[in-house]
Amino acid sequence: MRKFLVVLDESRECLNAMRFAAMRAKKSGGGVEVLSVIPPEEFNHWIGVGDIMREEARERIEVHYEVFAKWMRDRQGIEPELVIREGEAVTEIMAQVAEDKDIGLLVLGAGSTKKGPGPLITKLMKSVADFPIPITIVPGEMSKERLEAIT
Asked: What is the pTM of this model?
């Protein structure tokens, strides 16, 4: 089974990436793997404090994920998987793709501000020549209707 890997973060454009991945998975008989990466700088504290902060970050991710997972289950009939990693986002995305051979496509949402597509896409594009799978970048401002039409 082919899986679509989509990154869950706090960005607004993440929503369209989730929608696109779920709709494509439904139409192609694939699955969705949702990856959230906790940056290492969040835990540069004393060990006990860092552990509490790490657990709180995981809980926030799981609550955020469940919103998307419920939509995928209810509207698309897809049961997504959640993977939480700690480290630098691009490094962890590449590691996840290397570890899970069922992942066939990375789906990212692009920001629509004058600042550019977003820091993740900007950083990832520097490594795109070495990336082992295709990357789909979904415009953050694309309508639900347009997403449905192209998936």
From this structure: 0.90
